């Protein structure tokens, strides 16, 4: 008989080491912090050595534990692939995707019906993050973030460019009908709406429009862009918004771009694939195929 450590404790340990937090491991596994702690303690007792050390208020994996966790993760990946190969071929696969809220709402989710039509046995579960630069967490197959395709920025992930991003002036058609903007100087007197999560949007656009003297103009600021976008749609003022993300709103008549030729390039979006996803052939094909679909959708949009 194989002398194996407790498998449930191994599973919890791998998640805790990968996420770097007992609390996040508990959230991913549906367990309390105390339950995670007890399972880690049981595994430490079986191994005869500490796996985590206290660092301030957090428990941090030891260097040896990180190496062990990587091996355990690969073993679980191989086990998952074997189980998939042995399971029913028509069983639904769940693909977990993390994306910034505005990207998910305005670009990704409206396109998912096309993906599901071609992949009826895959269920895409989307979770959102409030900022595009939010730290990566465990528990997802693909993470979409704003950034450049440089491997050293995310060393544990394969990085694939997905969508370019440019900023332009946006407003509601109803506000345009009342107070049209036909040239850059026409924005004077309008309420400028801004977002804390997209700092610098107005300053960059005003510079591109030759209106640097309005940089100190008062603005009404919201915490997240999806709130600002809604305020623009409701006609509360004018804003700076990203294309092609908002093309769905322009096509639907909810927003318009009164000065479309004045555009400011921004850092685009990339798909981040955990390198452990490539360990299993079936899982890797599923994730890689989804990312290829994302790239194709962005190419078609252009």
TrEMBL record:
InterPro entries: LysR-type_TF_proteobact-type, LysR_HTH_N, LysR_subst-bd, WH-like_DNA-bd_sf, WH_DNA-bd_sf. PROSITE patterns: HTH_LYSR (PS50931). Residues 5-62 form the HTH lysR-type domain. CDD domains: PBP2_GcdR_TrpI_HvrB_AmpR_like. The keyword Transcription applies. This is LysR family transcriptional regulator. Belongs to the LysR transcriptional regulatory family. Keywords: DNA-binding, Transcription, Transcription regulation. The lineage of its organism: Bacteria, Pseudomonadati, Pseudomonadota, Alphaproteobacteria, Rhodospirillales. It comes from Azospirillum formosense.
